[in-house]
Amino acid sequence: MRKEEKRKEKGTAGPLIIWKRIAVFLLIFGLAITGVPGRQNLIAEVQAEEGEPQNLYAQSAVLMDADSGRILFSKNGQTERANASTTKIMTCILALEYGSMDDVMTVSDHAASQPKVHLGVASGQTFYLRDLLYSLMLESHNDSAVIIAENIGKSVEGFADMMNAKARELGCSHTYFITPNGLDAADDNGIHHTTAEDLGRIMKYCIMDSPRKDMFLEITRTANYQFTDCSGKNSYSCTNHNAFLQMMDGALSGKTGFTADAGYCYVGALRRDDRTFIVALLACGWPNNKSYKWADAKALMNYGLENYEYRSLWQDIDPGSIKVKNGINKEKPFDMETEISLTVMGEDKDWKMLLKDNEQAEVTWDKEESLEAPVTKGQKVGEVKYSLNGEILRTYDISTSSGIREKTFEWYLKTIFSMYFIGAD
């Protein structure tokens, strides 16, 4: 394919952003390795000029556009860390997808032995899955997670296999689950862990893409819930510990977590107007810094709300036509070349994405120089690529709008015969 690369750019914001970030990186790197007095203040000033959140408590943090899955801000977003009870969002969504809310689940000795925070069940008790899911997500009960895992996955190990398979399906290549509750654990393959970016992807699936997303949201937004075991003899009460639901207008869902290895963790979502943001925080302080995660979550959500708006990305492209060698042209039957028009397939004039004011998608396209007949209608001859800051967002095929038959020896004979014999007086 000979590349005839053409571009339609609205300004030069994209390349400028790339060069600006390179300059910022070089400046920060230079300041970091030199003895410039007050270099930390200078670094902070550079970050402030970029407009990105500063001085976050979390060692890993991500802000994601929940619609596209695009990472809008990342601090050590791909660093693998223990993630505590934020694990339970995966446990919950798998239980919703593979179980029925009225399924009866029996408590094993192993489930009953789980440490606090726990529901406090006894071996042999039975519960409905519906009730265990509220226990899991509102109070973060560790025993409820194991009951669910053992009844749906046949064992904790079997359920962990399901969790890891789903993580791979979602593109979470730096995640490894061992337990359904997120308690610190290790085996021959490593420790129980994820990354802030992967955790954001899992939350995106739970609230945007899963066929059970509505029930996930209903459970995680419930303030209080009461239930009994299947016998009706024992009563339980749950209160939602996701304080972020009352902190910002539009707070949608979330899950807290804490272990000695993980520190305080949080993953949450907010929807305001037509924008939905996800925040994932790992290692966001240790006792007595329980409130750090709320400060970071608000800072990142406000950054998203203040800086990102939906803007149209679609640009009309006229790919023109393409020469076809040895193709039949009834008007000029003996010309060696003819042309057919091209079209961009699957146009999406309503395509929008959350962008900053100074962000602009770049559109490039290339196509074949010529084709040999025969050519079929809809035959791919090139591509249109949309990219943002060097990352390809979408590609669209450039295809032929009609087909054309090949000139064969038989065609020449018939054409000549028709022209000089049948058409003669």
From TrEMBL:
Domain of life: Bacteria
tRNA processing as UniProt keyword: no
Catalytic activity: Preferential cleavage: (Ac)2-L-Lys-D-Ala-|-D-Ala. Also transpeptidation of peptidyl-alanyl moieties that are N-acyl substituents of D-alanine
Sequence ranges assigned to domain Peptidase S11 D-Ala-D-Ala carboxypeptidase A C-terminal in this UniProt record: 356-401
Residues annotated to bind substrate: K255
Enzyme class, spelled out: hydrolase
Pathway linked to the protein: Cell wall biogenesis; peptidoglycan biosynthesis
Keyword Transcription tagged: no
GO MF annotation terms: serine-type D-Ala-D-Ala carboxypeptidase activity
Family per similarity comment: Belongs to the peptidase S11 family.
Name of the protein in its database record: serine-type D-Ala-D-Ala carboxypeptidase
Organism (species): Faecalicatena orotica
